[in-house]
Write a structure and sequence with these properties.
The longest helix is centred in the C-terminal third of the chain and has 25 residues. By secondary structure, the chain is α+β, with helices and mostly antiparallel strands. It is 32% helix and 10% strand. The protein is built from 5 helices and 3 strands; from the N terminus they run αββαααβα. About 5% of the residues have low confidence.
Length: 167
């Protein structure tokens, strides 16, 4: 028979062993965490690189977020663009949307080293992601067709009413 101490010890070991990685937030990144620079939208997605974390694109990938190309990465925003006193950590940190382990950003690393990484398993300190700037909401392609169709119905009805009034 298990004693009370043994029970709690086994429960603590079980809970400790079963603690899994956090699941990133499956919602669009809030606009207050996005920095627009050089015609691209940037987010600070992880406080580390080089294998200490894995970027999760399962939800954010279809929304356009990705690693920057080499040429895009040369245009990445400076640290000051991510500073925001209104944010809990004082910086625009979107790691809770992308990182399965970390939910913070290391402002000291970015500002001190001035280094970020745009590719997985790099040797730098922070991970930024990018997507093409979202333009204004596009007009659906069917809208002009719908307007033309309604105008055609109105013209036919007017013509029919005109014929009826002359008869």
């Amino acid at each position: 028979m298990l004693g009370i101490k043994s029970f709690f010890l086994m429960a603590a070991l079980f809970l400790g062993a079963s603690s899994a990685q956090a699941i990133p937030v499956h919602a669009p990144v809030t606009p207050d965490l996005i920095v627009t620079s050089s015609g691209l939208e940037w987010v600070w997605a992880s406080p580390c690189s080089g294998g200490c974390s894995t970027i999760d694109f399962s939800f954010q990938g279809p929304l356009g977020w990705r690693f920057a190309t080499s040429s895009e990465f040369l245009l990445h925003p400076v640290f000051a663009a991510f500073v925001d006193a209104n944010q809990p950590l004082g910086v625009k940190c979107a790691s809770k949307y992308f990182d399965a382990i970390w939910t913070h950003c290391d402002a000291r690393d970015f500002s001190y080293y001035g280094a970020v990484v745009s590719q997985p398993n790099g040797n730098n300190y922070e991970t930024l992601l990018v997507r093409s700037s979202v333009s204004a909401v596009p007009v659906p392609a069917a809208l002009p067709l719908l307007v033309t169709g309604l105008a055609g119905f109105a013209a036919v009805r007017r013509r029919k009413n005109a014929k009826t009034s002359f008869a």
